[in-house]
Design a protein that fits this description.
alpha+beta; about 30% helix
Length: about 160
Amino acid sequence: MAHGGQAGPGHADFWRATPEGQFFLLRGFQEDARGEGHEPGTTLELTTPVWRMGEILLHAASMARQFEVPDAKVVFCVRWTRIGGRTLVSHANHLWYDLEDYSARQDVFQNQITIQADQIADALPETVDQLLRPLYALFNFFDPPQAFVANELARMRDRR
């Protein structure tokens, strides 16, 4: 069970780590849990990728500090599968986007960035935007405003 006793694909993480400093995380879609208001496999919450990418990049920076290699090179690869047919939604009440017509036709998305660990915190909004803007474009060319990622990361950090 996870977060408040609710189990679901967004809380069922599979982690791997190697002694060489390679990390792997596999996680399901939080939107596919029962009670989220949509049929599983049909939606992608607009804000969730921003928060997840921000969290894991900050975790990578923290790990580098703990291993005493703050200038370590972080090669960050992301891959979403089973996104074809999903529609962007936003349950965040602070967003005004009309997302009804933003559906993905492509089933898999991959992206990769390389960044020095001690630069992650300062470059977080730009880095997450670089990772996610091509993902959002798969949803009928959805182009969030420039401030969207920075605002969501600020909200994420405020809740930590």
